[in-house]
Design a protein that fits this description.
By secondary structure, this protein is of the alpha+beta class. It has a single domain, classed as Sufe protein. Chain: A. It contains 6 helices and 3 strands; from the N terminus they run αβββααααα. A hairpin with a 2-residue loop joins β2 and β3. The protein is globular. The two termini are 27 Å apart. The structure holds FE2/S2 (inorganic) cluster (FES).
Length: 147
């Protein structure tokens, strides 16, 4: 059902953890109302380049694998390039996901965007093409604490 790469990133996830709150760290928190899974992504940005990425995911195996791959893919890229990392690109890098698990990769894309949005807001900049994350962050924080 899962590719070797998905299994590898699930059993040995890269970049698990947090980055300390700072002006140069964007934090994105997103959740899927249907399955209740939550993903938090931290991006450290220096001179417009993502220099570090971490994540914490309270969710299914595919959500863990996609967060792991998405945080690997985003490092070393500019803000605009980071925005181009779609759920499709993440799923392809993992050699595919079963159709029922595609929404999990969407969570990874949304978490990246939310972290970029947070960074842009903190630093008073605009990233062309980036839209405001729709999630109710306070509600997600509360759910995250209950985990
Ligand atoms: Fe919810 Fe995978 S089942 S993110």
């Amino acid at each position: 059902m899962y590719s070797d790469k998905v299994m590898d990133h699930f059993t040995n996830p890269r970049n698990v953890g947090e980055l300390e709150a700072a002006a140069d760290v964007g934090v994105g928190l997103v959740g899927n109302a249907k399955c209740g899974d939550i993903m938090k992504v931290f991006l450290k940005i220096d001179d417009g380049i993502v220099t570090d990425a971490k994540f914490k995911t309270f969710g299914c195996g595919a959500a863990v694998a996609t967060s792991s791959m998405a945080t690997e893919m985003v490092k070393g890229h500019t803000l605009r390039e980071a925005l181009q990392i779609t759920n499709k690109a993440v799923a392809e890098a993992l050699d595919g996901l079963p159709p029922i698990k595609v929404h999990c990769s969407l969570l990874a894309e949304q978490a990246l965007h939310a972290a970029l949005w947070d960074y842009a807001e903190k630093n008073g900049i605009e990233i062309e093409g980036l839209e405001s994350p729709a999630a109710d962050l306070e509600e997600l924080e509360r759910l995250g604490e209950e985990e």
